[in-house]
Structures are given as C-alpha cells and as structure tokens.
UniProtKB/TrEMBL annotation, chain A:
Record PANTHER family: OLIGOPEPTIDE-BINDING PROTEIN APPA, PERIPLASMIC BINDING COMPONENT OF ABC TRANSPORTER
Annotated organism of origin: Candidatus Segetimicrobium genomatis
UniProt-listed InterPro entries: Peptide/Ni-bd, SBP_5, SBP_5_dom
Keyword tags: Signal, Transport
Every Solute-binding protein family domain range: 80-423
Name assigned to this protein: ABC transporter substrate-binding protein
Span of the signal peptide: 1-24
Gene Ontology biological-process annotations: peptide transport
Pfam family of the protein (one): SBP_bac_5
Length: 513, 283
C-alpha cells in the first residue's frame, strides 16, 4: 500500500508540475499579446470613400485599408514604394511609368492589377470631390501590361509624386466597385492594405481584421484593430487609464503634463503639419486695408497664445508653411509681437479707432474659444474691440463658406509632403478664394504657377521662399502656431507610428497582455 | 417640512418671530448682492485682464480663488459674475411671475373661453421639458443675455399661471368675494384688489425657488455655449471652461460652482422663510 501511495503522490506531483509547466512554455518563447488592439478616437467616421470624403477621421481610418502607388515616408520628406515597387520618369518629366509589385492582393484574394490602378485613378480624377486637384496635370492614365501603369502629364509637374501619394488616389478593386453605388464605396471599403473592414457600427466603433493577403509577410502583427469613438476628452482618457482601451488620439494639451506623469502611459507629441490661423475677410473695409491686417498681425502675441491654448506645447508660426513641409523657410521671422508698431500701422491706415471687429468660431471648441478670448485681450491694447461670435459647427461653416465673416478662427493640416497644396488653398483664389479670405494677387498666382512647374529643387525652394515672404507681407491670413499631434498609449503598446500628414500606422503595433 | 417649520415660527406673545431661514437666506443674499455691486472696490483686478505669466496658479493670498488659463483672477470673475447671474435670475423671473399670475387669475376667475385659451397654452408648453424648450428658443434666437431672458420668460410663466388659477378657483367662491360682488364692485377690482392678494402666496413662494432654477438654467445655457457670450464672467460658462482643467486646475471650475451652490442655498432658505411667514399669516 505504502508503495502505491508513493506512486500516486509522485504521479500527482508530476502531473501538477507538467500542468504548471505546460502553459508556461509559449510564455517563455513569446510574450503574450492581445488579440485585439482598441484605439479611442475623438471624431467618428462618416464616409470611407477616398475620393468623396474630406475629414481626417475618415482618411486616417481608410488608410489602414487602402494603399496607393507610393507612400510618404514617416518623416514626411520623401517617398517609399507601396503598390508600385519602383517607378521611372521620362527626360521631359511628362511620362511616368509605375511597376506594380506582383504579390499585392486585395483582402478578397484578387491580385492588384494595372487595370485596378487605371480605374481607380480615373475615378479619382473624374468624380466630383475635394481632391480632384491632385490629378489636374494628368492627361492620360493607361496600362502597358498587368503590372505596368503609364501616366502622361500635360506639362512637367513638380509635386506629381506627392500628388500620387495622396489618400484620394487609393487603389480600389475594379471588379468589386465598377458597378457599385456610391454608398457601397463609402460604407464597405475593400483594399489591399494591412487591414480589412469587418464591421462598422456608425458613431460607435469600426472593427478591422488583418488582411490575410497583405503583401508584407508577418504584418499586420495584431489580428484585430478597433477604432472606438469616444468624443469626450475626459472619458477617453479615463478609458485609457482604466485599461479598457490601449491608446487614444487628441488628449488635450491641458492634460499632457499629467499623462506624462502616469507611469503606465506613454504620451506622444508627434510632429505634424497642423497650423492654426485666422482667416481675414479682405473683401470689405477695414480688413481690405493691408496696413490694418499687418497691424493685427503685430498685435497678436503668438507666444502667449501658445501658453494659454497649447500649454506651451506648440510653436509660434513664422510663415504659412508648417515646419515639417519641404521648402519651409527657417530664416523667416514672421511677425514679432509689437503693439507699438501695430498701433503705428493702424494710425497710418487711416482707419478710425476704436475699431470693432467680429471674430467667428465654433462654439464649444475649447481651443478656438481660448484663441478668440486671448486675441480679444491682445487687440484691445491697440484700440480694436473684438466681438466674439460663437456659432454651432453647421452655422459657423455656412457663414464662412458664404463669406459672411470678418475674422474666422480655423486651421489646416497638409495631406501631401509638398508646399503646393497648402499654397493653392490659402493663397490662391480659384481653389478656395484663399481660404475664404477673398485674397487675390497676380504676383502670388504667377509665383505659385512657377512653383508647380519648376523641377529643379533649388530654384523651386527660392520660389517658395518668395511665396512665404509675400504671404506675410499681404497677410490675408494671420498664422498663429504649429501644433503637434497628441497621442497617449499604454506602455504595453509598441510599434505605433503617426505620419506628419496625420494618419496612424498600425501594421507594426502589438499590445502585451 | 410643514410641521417642523410651523413649530419653529409659532407666534409667541402676539409678536412674530422671524424664521431663521429667512434671516440667514436674506443675509446671504444681501452679502452676495453687496459683493456683486462692490466688486470693483473689493478686488484690484479686472475680470478680463489676461496675464500669461500667471496661467493656472493655485489659490494663494494674491489670488484666493487661483487664476484660470488666461491668468485671470478667478475670485474677481466670480464676483463680477454674481452681478450677471443675479441679474439674469431676477429679471428672468419677474416677467413670468407677473404675466403668469395675471393669466392664471384671469383664467380662473372668468372661466369659459379665456380659461380654455390660457390652460391649453399651459398644457402645450408643459408637454415639452422646460430646459429643452429654452435651449430650442435660444438656439433659434442666437446666444446672448437678452435672448436667454426672452427664452426663459417665454416658457417660465407656466407654473405661476397654474398655481394662481388653482387658488383663484378656490377663493372666488368664498363669502368675501360674494360680498364684494353684492356691493357692486367691478370684476377687475374684485380680482386684482380682493382675490389676487389672497391667491398670490403660493406663487410668491415658488418665485424664490424659481430664481434658483433660472440661475441654474442660465448656467446650463452658458455651459452649452448658448448663454452670455465669452469672455463675460458668467458662472456656467466659467464652469464649462474650467472643466478641461479639473485635473491640474480644479479651482477654475469649482469656485464658480461653489458660487452657484451658495446662491441656490440662499434663495431656498429665503423661499422657505417666506413660505412659513405667509402660512402663519394665513392662520
């Protein structure tokens, strides 16, 4: 009996030992990773059609699903191959050939062929939407064979590669979408990127799974990605701190210091192309007078706005271009805060003081409201009575689009790593009436046209330096500050990248249990 | 609270003892009104003066309530804000009180179609929640103090009409009214001179608590961005603005919050006191 008991004890002990060892084996070889990565976002997606949408949350979401021929590198100053593994350009700069990688497949398993690229780019060029400018120089798009796309341009076009990298030039499956209704394209995106859409509960959550056919082997590293909409800043932060979600976008600047102190979190301030500015309506007096505009620019204490609005985490703006954009003029001084000079300019302008000016902004937007309140105090010092006009989002948009405003608080982020898009939008009348300011200048238009066609980088740089100087002189907009993107993630999350143009890159992301 | 309160204010020796709530509430209000009026003397700061070197300073001797994200002194803004919130609170109940009481009295005394018109209007306005209706009206008219007053006034008369109508219905069948009629007094004189003074007590009591409700409504509208325009130091707007800094500057939202609470308490105590006073007089 004694021996039987001994054997039994041994067996039980051995069983326990094996039982406790068994699950430990995979632990030792690879760290346990979460199967689902959840990221909290502050604005919900509405339309995932790359061609017709015009909002960052849409773009950043479908950039997980779609690919373009080339992609902007993470630093934002050059291009990496994406669907095209290489490309060539003719000596006159008018013919471009893109050679597609053979192993790229859509998430339904179909290979990506030149026909898909031709169909997608033609659709992007010909469908009415906010991004058609990106292919305006294109004369023709054709397929030489299944793996080669040839694009001919009407004239040499300096930012062409940047334009091709734009999200609106995403490659869709011709077979799936050729006869699709617009709702299908905006609600059921299907691409060749690292993730594919599996469920979209609007105003709540987007659920994506790894695209099993994605060409980069072993990527994405997480099987499932959820983008969860949590609009309230405090709720989003609490969800992160409680471990309910793994990361969040846009924690407000006021919370950055506190989140940095939290040992479980990593607070990122990522270089961006965000520029905050004021649009001045130059169609009517007194803002039609350039001296009044310059006076306001001198009366604006950008360093103080950075303190009050960004808690010191932004950089005062010196030109209209973001620091991260090619041809940003590091030597530009911008407008120093000089109330004396502002007063003198206001006197020279002949406009009687005290002068009442109205400032329009979106109500309930803490950043815009703080900016307007700070400006009211600053401009009062030179005899300008700034009246605040907070309006709800729809009303504010309607007012500034119909040019019924004097000063509008707004901002910008670049979509391509090139100064031409921003220049055309803020300083060109045809694109957007110079960001609705109504500014129109032949000198500026000529410079911008030259900037688009000049292929020599050094000469092009000089042109964009001139554009930056001229923009400051004419000041149809008052540029306030450059803001970084804010992201807070759990320290267990690794591999998240954010591009200077905004989109996150989730394909390398893992989260430890 | 009836039994307890009546015990406290029981008449003794033929003289009326003042309800402690009335004294306390009244004193608190006088102090608040005094602080609001004397704000420019009480504080050396301008409520809108910005100092970007003093952003989000914790309460100290120089700034007992701290400073906000523009370096503005929060105590100064709370004091100046008292004038705005008290003004809204008092102005926005005056019209509803007068109009609502008259409409209710007219309906209750005349009956017939006048009563039908008044009471059906009351029904319609009651069907929609008070705050929702006020928000809808302000959203339509646009933000601003005058529009807030108009919106609250347009909706707020309903409870007064109900209260006074009910009382008038009861009073109009009493003997003193029959006597007045027998003496040949005109309807207007009977209603305004005889019935209304006896029927107005519940409306007056409600008035005190309504001021609190209206201040809270104004604060809610300010919080939603529909009230007084920034940078005016209205308490609701200050709370909304300070919400962002709860973690690193709790005083920006908390101090105007305490001010709201203080004012609410003062008016409630005052209302209780008036209620007991009127009830004792009725006995």
């Amino acid at each position: 009996m004694g021996s039987v008991r001994t054997v039994l004890v041994f067996v039980i002990a051995a069983g326990l030992a094996v039982g406790s060892l068994a699950p430990a084996v995979p632990d030792a070889s690879a760290q346990q990773l979460k199967k689902v990565v959840t990221f909290g976002i502050n604005r919900a997606q509405e339309n995932l059609d790359p061609v017709t949408q015009d909002a960052n949350p849409d773009i950043w979401a479908f950039m997980q699903i779609y690919q373009q021929l080339v992609r902007v590198n993470v630093k934002g100053d050059g291009f990496d191959p994406d669907l095209a593994e290489r490309w060539t350009t003719s000596a006159d700069g008018k013919t471009w050939a893109f050679f597609l990688r053979k192993n790229a497949r859509f998430s339904n398993g179909d290979p990506v062929k030149a026909g898909d690229v031709v169909w997608s780019l033609k659709r992007a060029r010909d469908t009415k939407g906010p991004w058609q400018w990106a292919l305006e120089a294109v004369q023709d798009i054709g397929a030489r064979d299944d793996a080669t796309v040839v694009i001919t341009l009407r004239e040499p076009w300096a930012p062409f590669l940047a334009d091709v990298s734009l999200f609106s030039n995403s490659i869709l499956s011709e077979k799936v979408f050729k006869d699709a209704k617009p709702e299908q394209i905006s609600n059921q995106p299907l691409g060749s990127g690292p993730f594919m859409l599996v469920e979209w509960r609007k105003g709540e959550e987007i659920v994506m799974k790894a695209n099993p056919y994605y060409y980069e082997k072993g990527l994405p590293r997480t099987p499932e990605l959820h983008l969860r909409y949590i609009p309230d800043d405090n709720s989003r932060i609490i969800a992160l701190q409680s471990g309910e979600i793994d990361g969040i976008d846009y924690p407000p600047f006021s919370r950055v210091a506190e989140l940095r102190r939290d040992s479980r979190l990593e607070m990122q301030l990522n270089p961006s192309t965000a520029v905050a500015h004021l649009s001045l309506n130059v169609r009517e007096a007194p803002l039609s007078n350039v001296k009044v505009r310059q006076a306001l620019a001198y009366a604006t204490d950008r360093a103080a706005i950075v303190k009050a609005v960004c808690f010191g985490y932004c950089t005062p703006a010196t030109t209209f271009l973001p620091i991260t954009t090619p041809y940003f003029n590091k030597g530009a001084k911008g407008y120093a805060y000089d109330p004396g000079k502002a007063q003198q300019l206001l006197k020279e302008s002949g406009v009687p003081t005290p002068l009442t000016i109205k400032i329009l902004y979106r109500a309930n937007d803490a950043v815009y409201e703080s900016t307007a309140v700070a400006l009211k105090g600053m401009w009062a010092k030179i005899g300008v009575n700034l009246e605040l006009e907070p309006l709800d989002r729809a009303a504010a948009t309607q007012r500034y689009r119909s040019n019924q405003f004097q000063v509008d608080v707004t901002g910008w982020t670049n979509d391509i790593p090139d100064p031409s898009q921003l220049a055309a939008y803020e300083l060109g009348y045809t694109e957007s009436q110079s960001y609705h300011s109504g500014y129109q200048s032949k000198e500026m238009d000529d410079l911008m046209a030259r900037g688009l066609r000049e292929l020599n980088p050094d000469k092009r740089r000089q042109i964009y330096y001139q554009i930056q100087d001229l923009a400051l002189r004419d000041s149809p907009l008052i540029w306030l500050y450059y803001a970084p993107y804010t992201i807070a993630i759990s320290k267990k999350m690794k591999g998240l990248l954010q591009m200077a143009t905004g989109p996150w890159i989730f394909k390398d992301v893992t989260v430890g249990e | 609270m009836g039994a307890l309160a009546q015990e406290v204010v029981r008449p003794s020796g033929g003289r009326l003892h003042l309800h402690p709530g009335l004294v306390l509430g009244g004193t608190m209000l006088v102090l608040l009104a005094g602080a609001a009026l004397l704000a420019p003397v009480l504080t050396p700061y301008d409520p809108n003066a910005q100092d970007f070197d003093l952003i989000l300073q914790a309460p100290s001797l120089a700034h007992p309530f701290g400073t906000d994200n523009f370096g503005r002194d929060v105590l100064t803004r709370v004091l100046y804000g008292a004038a705005i919130d008290l003004r809204i609170g008092i102005l926005a109940v005056l019209f509803p009180f007068v109009f609502g009481s008259l409409a209710g009295a007219a309906g209750g005394y005349s009956g017939g179609w006048v009563d039908t018109v008044v009471m059906r209007t009351v029904d319609v306005l009651t069907a929609v929640p008070f705050l929702v209706l006020v928000i809808a009206i302000v959203a339509f008219l646009g933000p601003g103090e005058v529009n807030v007053l108009l919106a609250i006034g347009g909706v707020g008369w309903v409870p007064y009409a109900r209260l006074v109508r009910g009382e008038v219905l009861r009073e109009k069948n009493l003997e003193y009214v029959a006597a007045a009629r027998a003496l040949g007094f005109r309807r207007g004189r009977i209603l305004l001179g005889h019935i209304l003074p006896n029927a107005i007590a519940p409306a007056v009591i409600f008035l005190a608590s309504d001021v609190v409700l209206v201040i809270l409504t104004a604060a809610s509208l300010g919080f939603l961005g529909l009230g007084v325009r920034p940078p005016a130091p209205e308490w609701g707007m200050m709370i909304a603005g300070g919400r962002e800094f709860l973690a690193n500057g709790w005083w920006v939202a908390a101090m105007p919050g305490f001010a709201c609470m203080y004012t609410g308490l003062a008016f409630i105590l005052l209302g209780d006191g008036i209620a007991d006073l009127l009830r004792v007089r009725g006995q």
